[in-house]
# Entry
Amino acid sequence: MNTSTDAFKPIDDRTIDILFRQARSYNGWLEGPVDDATLKRVYDIAKWGPTSMNTQPMRVLWLRTPEAKARLRPHLSPGNVNKAMSAPVVAIIGYDLSFYQHLARTFPHLPTAKSYYEGKPPVIEATAFRGGSLQGAYLLLAARSLGLDCGPMSGFNNAGVDEEFFAGTTVRSNFLCCLGRGDPSKTFSRSPRFEFEEVCQVI
# Structure
């Protein structure tokens, strides 16, 4: 267990490179499966990331079989078809609009937590989407930490995906993330990033 002192020790540069500086968004994939145990490890790391009131709205559907990915194909933008169909795994990162039904378990410190959301659709939607997006980003970093490459993407018909995979539920799709061993020959040149002074202020 980390002490308060340990929490302020920075991770090494190699780890930062793996997670951020040298990590890329991949468009093509090398052969090789991603097994259930690895997917579980990815989630078991990502689940510790914070969300508002510990709402944990993210829901993940891992598409690994050709049959499952074929169901996704009609809902993809043309430019994303090969990227997704060739990936060992495509994760549909969704968010559950009924997250607040679980707050007695996930946020037991506040017995009235459910009342903050119940009957308030705009608050539910904003909280679910924000928290699910955060958790999706944690999941991407968790995958990178285990040696997987990622190809997160929009470029799909959300309504079509929701009807195909989440019909009859309160889950809605957010974004997709391909997982596997990326093919470096199919990446673009590194795109520029803004500098601190361009987008940040300290006041």
Observations:
- Strands lie at 58-63, 89-96, 149-153, 171-180.
